[in-house]
Design a protein that fits this description.
The protein is α+β, with helices and mostly antiparallel strands. The chain has helices at about 10-25, 40, 90-105, 120-125, and strands spanning about 1-5, 45-55, 55-65, 70-80, 110-115, 130, 145-150. Helix content is about 30%, strand content about 35%. The protein has a 7-stranded mixed beta sheet, with helices on both faces. A hairpin with a 3-residue loop joins strand 3 (about 55-65) and strand 4 (about 70-80). The termini are far apart. The relative contact order is 0.16.
Length: about 150
Amino acid sequence: MKVLKLDPTSENVIEIISDIDELMNSLYPQESNQLLSLEELKGNNVYFIGITEEDEILGCGAIVYKNDDEVYGELKRIYVKSKYRGKGLSKVILQELIAHAKNIELPIIRLEAGIRQPEALSLYTKIGFKERAEFGSYQYDPLSVYMELDIRA
């Protein structure tokens, strides 16, 4: 297995993004989904990685550099294909994204996750993320949990 930067225009990326969209649309109504588009994943402010084995992407994740209410990185598109879950791949993706954030000297990492994803929320908590109020352009949504991790220490 390798962790590498992903090309949002590749067929494998388009496929895994479609998988994520299908899952999120099955869990939440459209207005509660805050999904980063393939076009947005191409942005210069996005670091988008995946864990691959041979030519298959097993999981992926992105961190987006933001500077709205303050400078931070926002985690997006954290996902592991169902047949690879339970093997610690999400943690590997998160650790790589946190390391990248530290390398570019981001002080804080934030995320928005859904209440119907207890495994993800548990992992974020174990890594050290704390719940907080909405941030950036997010508006209150009872189906969302907002979290952040201070990485300055």
